[in-house]
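The authors assume throughout that readers already know how a fold can be written as discrete tokens. In essence, backbone conformation is discretised, so a fold becomes a row of integers matching the chain in length. A single example would do more here than another paragraph of explanation. For illustration, here is how one protein appears when written out as sequence plus structure tokens:

…
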Amino acid sequence: MKKVLFATSALVAAGGMAAADINLSGGGRIGLVYNSGAAQSVKVERRTTINIDGSGETEGGLQFGARIRLRSDENDGGGGVSSSNVYIGNDTWRLTVGNTSGALVTRLGYFQGSVGLTGLHWANVSFNMGTNRWGPNTYSSRGNAGDVVRLDFNVGGLGISLSTDSTGDHLNNGTEDAIAVSYDFGDWNVAAGYGADVAGAGVDIWSLSAAGTIGEFGIGLQYSDLSGIARKVVLNGSYDFGDTSVTAFVANTDEDFAGSAGIGAAGSETEYGIGFTHSLGGATLAGGISRNYADTTMADLGIRFSF
């Protein structure tokens, strides 16, 4: 994160005098996306993201900060501004309030195995079951994830997060209460979590994830059980060779009854995808292809970069 704006030491009163900084970071991408299920099957992909982060620390060692994000995509009339979040804490604990992810998304490896420039269907995410998508509290880049209150603890390789949200998230799914635990050992991470009312009253979720590396190979596994709706398991793998990395996943959703996850299948549906990234030395060429529960094919290709 680069200190490119107001990166002077400002004195503020917060339990003692403290040095504070305002920092800018972000990124962009440009490319093409194909969607066999869309009226316009090929479209131009364009995105710009700017993060505005304030941070500081009191003389007593209490850290504090806040974030607002600016985002603009193709076809935007004027882009969007996210609601903010604010945090306080230290190296052991942190309290974050506002537009932020809940305990589940903070700890679980839900996004491992994503493919392509854009993530395509995001079928690699275990809580995305058919049309029952994006249930748990997730940071919103263009709005508000809800007034989430999340408390994180980190001691050695052990991490624990607890969160609550009494307002409902930006997708009006529910008022999630969640707890999640993760543990790092060597090159591996395992995590488990539970969330209540993640997709409306009475709809709970249990999730597990594991991920690690063996030499140049990466391996990941996720499992989520959305009560009364479905269960989904995702297996992903990757291989790095030089400046290029290839990632693939396969996912299977088993509905409680046909149509309960919006899939409409009698039994289960399988989704899969494969993609690559290649370093251009300051930017990344990325592309992929995936097929979802509705037998819709998506593919993309383009360049993304960070600054």
